[in-house]
Write a structure and sequence with these properties.
Largest sheet: 6 strands, mixed
Number of helices: 8
Structural class: alpha/beta
Number of domains: 4
Oligomer: single chain
Strand order of the largest sheet: 16-13-17-21-20-18
CATH architecture of the largest domain: 3-Layer(aba) Sandwich
Number of strands: 28
Bound molecules: adenosine monophosphate, magnesium ion
CATH class of the largest domain: Alpha Beta
């Protein structure tokens, strides 16, 4: 095979990132917009809250009427009625009177404070007020959260639960957002069987499909799991062509190793332009990247070994997906940690070692989990971090400071 020099990880990542861009914006319902990035500035078209309302259950009063009220000498006021949330009853609180009011109900004209129920005897016809409130006490003022015309969210905001809640609060049912990229995942390999089905001789469950669709979702994308495609060029070509319609990104695994049947490479040459590179990375792996189909859909040909596939996803696909979503940072957070045990790394390759990161005596300590084999998915699942060992480093002593990428779950 080729003896060309290995391609540096950063050069490959730069190439990938240069080839992807945020998706064009769409008008969406709030529920579809969850997880998307806003592509408009949203201003309040009415004040938030929209009207002065009670912050607690109690009695809407005129402060001047209860100026001397105290626990020792309560002021008794006739109660002229009830104001409930949503109430449209046009009460006005006349001097010497009060209205019973519930949390969120509009403050009736005339009243300038709400006495909490616990500062009264809770009376229905008459109420004994045991406290002299200041003007505005227990009143939520219209617009104190956002005034009319105030920007509540700006373009670029990532819409999580609280932002979606805010959009609903300002009365929006649709917003302009960048959609989440749709990632189509398929696994090649004649040895693969759907998880749950019995295994014949030489067969293994397809773990990559489940691994990568979940990883794509955790990165904030929408993932479609196509499943297993046999190592057969025409079937792979047909499947890819069928799937392109719903894909913003296509991921395949398997069929890219040196000496395999090369189905993926053969088919891609026909429907797109995809390059396969041997990277200066450990675990060692070839990765394919390019564009396929009429829309030049970004394509990643990931290795078949689950650990390699996952690491290639983490290092190249995840940042690309985040760039397409339009969120920053596109990279996972890193921390500096002390190495719990010695580590070796091949020269000229950047190693991503599966690690268990813990806090010991107030400091991060990371230990490799499992071995170097890129088939070790059990060890992969025990890792919560990747220890990044630079190309030039071949040996690290226990206690050495290392950079560690945190693999914490779900943050889109
Ligand atoms: P390949 O890149 O197709 O030569 O596959 C490399 C190794 O990864 C082989 O041991 C395959 O059996 C394994 N492998 C490939 N695809 C998958 C998959 N979807 N799930 C689990 N293991 C896989
Ligand atoms: Mg294979």
């Amino acid at each position: 095979m080729s003896t060309s020099p290995l391609k540096p990880v950063d050069a490959h990542l730069d190439e990938v990132l240069a080839a992807v861009s945020p998706l064009g914006s769409l008008d969406m319902t709030l529920s579809d917009a969850h997880g998307c990035v806003l592509d408009e500035d949203v201003v309040a078209t009415f004040p938030l809250p929209p009207f002065d309302n009670a912050a607690t259950d109690g009695y809407a009063v005129r402060t001047e009427d209860v100026r001397t009220a105290s626990a020792a000498a309560p002021t008794v006021l006739p109660v002229v009625g009830d104001v409930l949330p949503g109430s449209t009853t046009p009460y006005t609180v006349q001097p010497g009177l009060c209205v019973r009011i519930m949390t969120g109900a509009p403050i009736p004209p005339g009243a300038d404070a709400v006495v909490a129920r616990e500062d009264t005897d809770g009376g229905l016809a008459n109420v004994a007020v045991r406290r002299a409130p200041t003007v505005g006490h227990n009143i939520r003022i219209a617009g104190d959260d956002a005034a009319v015309g105030a920007p509540v969210l700006t373009a670029g905001a990532h819409l999580g639960a609280t932002q979606i809640g805010l959009l609903a609060a300002v009365g929006r049912d649709r917003v302009t957002v960048r959609p989440r990229p749709r990632v189509v995942v398929l696994s090649t390999g004649g040895e693969l069987v759907e998880p749950g089905l019995p295994l014949g001789r030489g067969q293994i469950p397809d773990s990559n499909s489940a691994l990568l669709t979940s990883a794509a979702q955790e990165a904030g994308a929408i993932a479609f799991k196509v499943g297993i495609v046999p190592d057969e060029p025409s079937q792979l070509a047909d499947t890819l062509e069928d799937q392109l319609i719903r894909a913003d990104v296509v991921l395949t695994t398997g069929g890219v190793s040196v000496g395999t049947s090369d189905v993926v490479k053969e088919v891609l040459g026909r429907i797109g332009s995809v390059r396969f590179d041997q990277l200066a990375i450990d675990p060692p792996m070839p990765v394919g990247f390019g564009a396929i189909g009429p829309d030049k859909t970004p394509f990643f040909g990931l290795p078949g070994n689950p650990v390699s596939a996952y690491i290639a996803f983490e290092i190249f696909v995840r940042p690309a997906l985040r760039r397409m979503i339009g969120v920053e940072p596109i990279q996972r957070p890193t921390v500096r940690a002390r190495l719990g045990e010695a580590l070796e790394s091949p020269p000229g390759r950047r190693s991503y070692v599966r690690g268990a990161l813990n806090v010991e005596e107030g400091a991060y300590v990371v230990r490799p989990v499992g071995g170097a084999g890129s088939h070790l998915i059990a060890a992969l699942a025990a890792a919560n971090a990747l220890i990044v060992v630079p190309e030039s480093v071949t040996e690290l002593e226990p206690g050495a400071a290392v950079t560690v990428t945190l693999l914490e779950r779900r943050h889109h």
